């Protein structure tokens, strides 16, 4: 009977307001995170849509997509100073959202060739990579939000060092052409992006508490982390499928 009473009590307490009660966060921080993850979801959908259009309907030149991505990145970075503390005009905010959409769509176009190839190898790899990377991203991001300590803030120096070494070894491997180095870099990059999810999530909260309310730049950082996780996981699964078919 006590067991049944406990179940009934938990059922009464299982309300949407209790589920969405992020007690470690203030109301302003919650609103800021809702904006960030909402824009992140929109960016992901734009990337998926542009990738789908490029594969099945209209083949867009990669040079144009690269130029659009480069232009939007510089334009978005250049507009940071105006929006750092939320003092930004509505027209400028719309422009920055367009820059974000331009980056998202161009990344989808640039990824489309490899996504089409992996889908040709095994159609089940693509949803597995997407939902796998989304699950990893969600777990690490939530753990960073609800973490009482801010140890992952110190990951920045470690991640930057790892990123530098990965870039250097990748450049060297361009001439060496070693499959073992390439595979090692792939897994190192995958775990590196896991660390970046932790780091960028806590940096977002840290910046907000210092007065930086630029949710668009915070969104683009987390968006790039999610894209990095997805592409690395897609390559890992794709290479395993290639080995099976050899």
From TrEMBL:
UniProt keyword annotation of Membrane present: yes
Keywords: Membrane, Transmembrane, Transmembrane helix
Membrane-spanning residues: 36-57, 63-85, 97-118, 124-146, 153-174, 180-199, 220-238
Xref: InterPro entries: Bax_inhibitor_1-related
Protein's cellular compartments: Membrane
Membrane topology: Multi-pass membrane protein
Signal sequence region: none
Taxonomy, superkingdom: Eukaryota
Pfam families, sorted: Bax1-I
Gene Ontology, cellular component aspect: membrane
Family in the record: Belongs to the BI1 family.
Protein name: Putative Bax inhibitor 1
Species whose genome carries this gene: Plasmodium knowlesi
Lineage per the UniProt record: Eukaryota, Sar, Alveolata, Apicomplexa, Aconoidasida
């Amino acid at each position: 009977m006590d067991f049944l009473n406990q179940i009934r009590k938990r059922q009464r307490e299982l309300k949407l307001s209790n589920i969405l009660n992020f007690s470690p966060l203030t109301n302003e921080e919650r609103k800021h995170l809702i904006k960030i993850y909402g824009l992140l979801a929109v960016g992901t959908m734009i990337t998926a849509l542009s990738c789908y259009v490029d594969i099945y309907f209209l083949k867009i030149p990669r040079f144009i997509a690269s130029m659009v991505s480069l232009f939007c990145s510089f334009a978005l970075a250049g507009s940071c100073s105006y929006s750092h503390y939320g003092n930004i005009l509505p027209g400028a905010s719309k422009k920055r959202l367009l820059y974000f959409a331009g980056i998202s769509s161009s990344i989808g176009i640039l990824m489309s060739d490899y996504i089409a190839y992996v889908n040709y190898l095994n159609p089940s790899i693509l949803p597995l990579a997407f939902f796998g990377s989304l699950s990893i991203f969600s777990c690490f991001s939530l753990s960073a939000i609800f973490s009482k300590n801010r140890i992952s803030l110190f990951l920045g120096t470690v991640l930057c060092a790892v990123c530098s070494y990965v870039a250097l070894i990748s450049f060297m491997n361009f001439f060496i052409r070693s499959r073992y180095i390439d595979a090692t870099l792939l897994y190192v990059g995958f775990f590196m992006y896991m660390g970046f999810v932790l780091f960028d999530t806590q940096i977002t909260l840290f910046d907000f508490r210092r007065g930086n309310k630029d949710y668009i730049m915070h969104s683009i950082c987390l968006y790039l982390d999610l894209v990095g996780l997805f592409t690395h996981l897609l390559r890992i699964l794709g290479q395993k499928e290639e080995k099976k078919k050899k």
